Amino acid sequence: ALGIFQATLSRNHPDNAIALATLGSILTQRGKYGEAEQVLNEALQIERTVFGAENPRIGAIEADLGVLYEREDDIPRAVTAIETALKVTRDTRGPAYYMVGYYLDELANLKLKANDPVAAEATARQALAVYALSLPARHLYIASTHELLGDVLLRRESLPAAEAEVRTALEMNVALAGPDSWRSARSEASLGWILIKRDRAAEGEPMLLAARSKLLAAVGPQHPATKQATARLVEYYRAHHRDAEAQRVLAAPDKR
Fold first, then answer.
1. H or E segment at 130?
2. Interior CA angle at 208 toward 203 and 210, to 5°?
3. Average pLDDT over residues 155-160
4. Average model confidence (pLDDT) for the chain?
5. Rounded to an integer, what distance in angstroms lies between the CA atom of residue 72 and that of residue 236?
6. How far apart are the C-alpha atoms of 96 and 105, rounded to whole Å?
7. Were both Cys, which of 60, 101, 144, 177 would link to 127 (CB 3.0–4.6 Å)?
8. What whole-number distance in Å separates Cα of residue 231 and Cα of residue 239?
9. What is the spatial distance between Cα 199 and Cα 136, in angstroms, rounded to a whole number?
10. What's the pTM?
11. Which residues contact residue 12 at a Cβ distance below 8 angstroms, ignoring those fewer than 6 apart?
């Protein structure tokens, strides 16, 4: 499709930018980060040339660059890209537009990865405030931010509050995506881990174990949620001198 556009349209035609942005996203998903960055920056250049620096599509492309940089573990560049996406979207769509909340959620996640849980919590709560103005009371984006807030509060060792946030996320995910969805399994895995941390391993361990099995079946072993559940289960087993069980988890055949 990109070749057809480039053969029939001028280089700065907006449709070229759309095709390049789509290609950049596909290349990112395939792990071809150098190529992805090149075509995403070309898409940005076209958008700026044709529509100027303040247009919503620039925000979307900057967000795609943020995803790319995050996958490369270049958190500072990812933060810069998402902050640009946030500013452009806020300026062009208004502060209550739902994608403002989405980019705030992304920014909160990056701040947590940068080991700044205080800023991450504040940013996640800003995202929820925007969603309260722009989305139904129960929405998968809202569930995702409650899940993130649970992780933030866990990092801050506010365990009762973390449990409350993850239970909210789990209830929404079960209602909206179904009890067997990977989203629900992710929430169950997070809740199981929090229960373990709260000295309620009799509840938490089987929940984490079952959730990991669901994640393996639904999204495979390389999905971030599965990797996190696996790492937490292994950490728990090793902390309790159950090394054989930890080894079995690590050696288990991949399921999908």
1. helix 117-134
2. 100
3. 97
4. 92
5. 28
6. 14
7. 101
8. 12
9. 35
10. 0.88
11. 46, 49, 50
* Tokens 């995803």 sit on residue: 67
CA distances, 193 to each of 28, 211, 251 (Å): 31, 11, 21
CA distances in angstroms from 173 to 68, 140, 147, 198, listed in the order given: 26, 7, 10, 23
CA atoms of 130 and 40, how far apart (whole Å):
28
Long-range CB contacts for residues 66-70, cutoff 8 Å, separation at least 24: 66/106, 66/110, 67/25, 67/28, 68/24, 68/28, 68/33, 68/36, 68/37, 68/40, 70/110, 70/113
Structure token pair of residue 254: 């991949």
Q: Is 116 left (phi over 0), alpha (psi -120 to 50) or beta?
A: beta
pLDDT at 5 over 60: no
3-state secondary structure of 252: coil
Handedness of CA 158, 146, 119, 63 (dihedral sign): positive
Cα angle, residue 187 at apex, residues 146 and 222 outer, rounded to 5°: 115
| Token digits of residue 8 | 């029939």
Contact at 8 Å (CB) between 15 and 47?
Answer: no
